[in-house]
Amino acid sequence: MNDDLRAIVSYFYDDSYEEAMAVLRGDLARARADIPWAAQFRARWQRLKDAVRDRSLPPGDAFELVAIGGNRVLHENSDEEAYRWLALMIANAERPDGRIDPYV
C-alpha cells in the first residue's frame, strides 16, 4: 500500500469520523499556506483523489487502505466499498459548508 495515501487515511485510525474529519479539514486549510509541509500534503491529497477517481489502486489495496490504514469497518470488505468510502471521505473533506454526509 502506498504510504502517502495511508498517511491521509490514517487520520481516521483512532478518532471518530467526525473528529478525524475536523482535523483533516484543518490540515487541508493550512496546506493552502506557504509552509514547509504544505506542498507535500497537497501532493498526497491530490494523489489520493486521483487514485480514487481513477480506481487505479492495485487489487486489494483500496480495501486495505480503508480497513487497515484507516481502521474503518466495511460491510462488504471489498475494494468497491472501500472506493465508495474514500470518495465520500474526499467529498466530505472538501465540502465548503462544513457538513458531513454519513457513510451508509
Task: Describe the fold and architecture.
This protein has 104 residues and is mainly α. It has one domain. It contains five helices and no strands. It has helices at 3-9, 17-30, 38-54, 61-69, 79-93. Helix 1 crosses helix 3 and helix 4 (61-69) crosses helix 5 (79-93).
Write the layout of secondary structure elements.
Elements: H1 3-9, H2 17-30, H3 38-54, H4 61-69, H5 79-93
Structural class: mainly alpha
Helical coverage, percent range: 55-70%
| Whole-number mean pLDDT | 92
Q: What's the number of extended β-strand segments?
A: 0
* Alpha plus pi helix count: 5
**Helix-strand sequence:** HHHHH
Shape: globular
Largest sheet: none
Beta-strand residue fraction: under 5%
Q: Total domains, how many? A: 1
Q: How many whole angstroms does the radius of gyration measure?
A: 13 Å
Q: In terms of per-residue confidence, which ranges show pLDDT below 50 for 5 or more consecutive residues?
A: none
Beginning-to-end CA distance, first to last residue: 25 Å
